[in-house]
Amino acid sequence: EVKNLEAIFDARIDRDEKIEPKDWMPEKYRQTHIRQISQHAHSEIVGMLPEGNWITRAPSLKRKVALLAKIQDEAGHGLYLYSACETLGVSREELYEQLHSGKAKYSSIFNYPTLTWADMGAIGWLVDGAAIINQVPLCSTSFGPYARAMVRVCKEESFHQRQGFQIMMTLAEGTPEQKEMAQDALNRWWWPALMMLGPLDAESVHTEQSMKWKLKRKSNDDLRQQFVDQTVPQAKMIGLTIPDPDLKWNEEKQSYDFGEMNWDEFWQVVKGHGPCNKERISARVNAWEKGKWVRDAAMAYAEKQANKEVK
Ligand code: FAQ
């Protein structure tokens, strides 16, 4: 009977139908979606921390307002994604527990430090830039709640990317020191941003199955190529240099060739040994523990209200 259900399911995927939470789905489909959607949610939440570091030091009121709004958007994305994930039968408490205990992964990129204001520019421009390239195809992913969440998320990411590029542009047009600060941020964020799109296709264990299920619509390498081709002209436009001596326009393939990434560094960061992994997790655990009294008070209040209604 499961064989039969599986054939019907596969046919629905072939027809590009959306799979909804109450529909039958193979257990592996459910598990792989819980994995990817929860990693994505954790990334949004942990991703607030590097930028949170600069809220009190933004150079003007306008910059501070925009940065605050961006970080709040990220909180919203995290909450959407946790909700989408919960429709697959996992509770939010379990997901938080997985993050806080170090069991769950989140994007490697958020384990790097934010050393100067220019890093706010580089994150918006490069990290949100890479996130959009990865997430636009996810708007047509096969699982309905994930696909629908991505539509709004992508619109907001697009504002974030412009916000970051505008910071970089302003710095690059500024004093020599400001331009140097922008270049230094680009130097530090370029390679981590490329690696954020995941291991090489040849090393990517999930791509083949995820493509069949239309969870992933493009491979890691295709997305990376698209990111490079889109970003190199933007760097040129503002007079900054991509820190890659092997970067070269390839006339034949009509796109850029680029250098090799440091995959040892990537896997070290993914395994928890990046520059800020410990700091990020302890910030989350701390926020959770410090917020306990708020959760307790809200529960006590809700119980009191419920009792009142009975009388
Ligand atoms: N970091 O076989 P694949 C954002 C793991 S949101 C850590 O290629 P898959 C917004 C992978 O989980 C950024 N781990 O895996 C923002 C797997 O391990 P597992 C997050 C990584 O799933 C901006 C193993 O390596 N976006 O930036 C990474 O097919 C600014 C093998 O890899 C998403 O999560 C990595 N970079 O492809 C917020 C998008 N890459 O699970 C604040 C949704 C791979 O077996 C500020 N996710 N791994 O233990 C995806 O599209 C996919 O999951 C990929 C990875 C493409 C990330």
TrEMBL record:
The protein's matches in InterPro entries, at most eight in alphabetical order, are given as: Aromatic_CoA_ox/epox, Ferritin-like, Ferritin-like_SF, PaaA, PaaA_PaaC
Q: Give any Pfam family that matches.
A: PaaA_PaaC
The protein depicted here goes by the name 1,2-phenylacetyl-CoA epoxidase subunit A
Provenance organism? Flavobacterium cheonanense
At the highest ranks, the source species' classification is: Bacteria, Pseudomonadati, Bacteroidota, Flavobacteriia, Flavobacteriales
The encoding gene: paaA
